Amino acid sequence: MPQNQMSFGIPEPRARTDSQPRHPAGLRKLSNLLVATAVLMAASACAGRSDLGYASLMSEVPTTRAIVVPPPGGPSVVAVLQQQYQDGLSQEIALSTASLTTGQNAFYVSLLNNTAGNMEIPNTLSLPSMTPDRLQSEMEERMPGVEMETSLVYVQNKFGPFGFATGRSSTGDLCLYAWQQIEPGEPAIFVPGGTISVRLRLCDADASVDQLLRVFYGYTIAAYYRQESWNPYGDPPSPPKQLGERDAPMYPLGLGDGGGSATVIRRRNLSEEIRRTIPVEAPRRIIDKDTIAPPAVAPVETAPPTGYPVVPPPPGQ
To answer: Rounded to whole angstroms, how far apart are CA atoms 297 and 139?
Structure first.
């Protein structure tokens, strides 16, 4: 036995030739296994993503961001749902409800800017014309089962004319649906001034028509676009003719006869006014007892009561 094979019986390693590979086969298999594992992990991560997508851009905003604010004492704002568009936004402003009619009292408001502001949003805002068919469809959608009757009375609030319809629900509640579109009276050709569309759906168990209309008369628009071209209200009205004139006092709301408008009061003679305010007494009769005798008063004879004996008068009378 050779001497190099006697120690511990371990054969001597062979010398590597150039025809043998530099990397062992096990290392190559391990590398392939790691690559396959990484691919599987990436595929499982993509398949298990928990990102949630929404089909609508409607989102809830704080009630302080409501475009329309009800008048003091009116229904309170309980929630605001807002949807953003390229050229504007719309809101559904939910109001407190005290009725049994199906549906939610709410303002439906849209602000049209007429200028694309956010190009990342694909949707654009369109305000259809207020035709009778369109309004009837809105009332059927927002007040199902309520027979509404459109009023032919001309009414207007501080933003201009508006229309409304009233009806009684099956539960006995009185319902109001009012609509208004605020835009400049003269349309601009080059730079549009913008448009505001307002709807009100309001049902109440104990309110009258006047009380429901008060909400639409007194609402306030609390939002605007910070652009010079955005002005859906048009030019401000001219002051009243009595402003600055003499003999035309103007009173605050609730005082005077004009109810806040200029009232002309004609001047009157002060002495005539004094004479009208002093009560006129009837002339007194002065009786002179030396010249005029007072009228004689005839004695009143009364018949004796029946059922009693008659007492004769004393003798000599």
So the answer is: 85
Cα separation, 81 vs 93, in Å, equals: 7
Instruction: Report the alpha-carbon distance of residue 145 to residue 147 in Å, rounded.
Output: 6
Cα–chain-centroid distance for residue 153? 22
> 69-122 pLDDT, tens per residue?
999 988 999 999 999 888 889 999 999 988 889 899 999 999 988 766 666 666
**Global pTM exceeds 0.90:** no
Q: Name the residue among 106, 111, 77, 104 with its Cα closest to residue 92.
A: 106
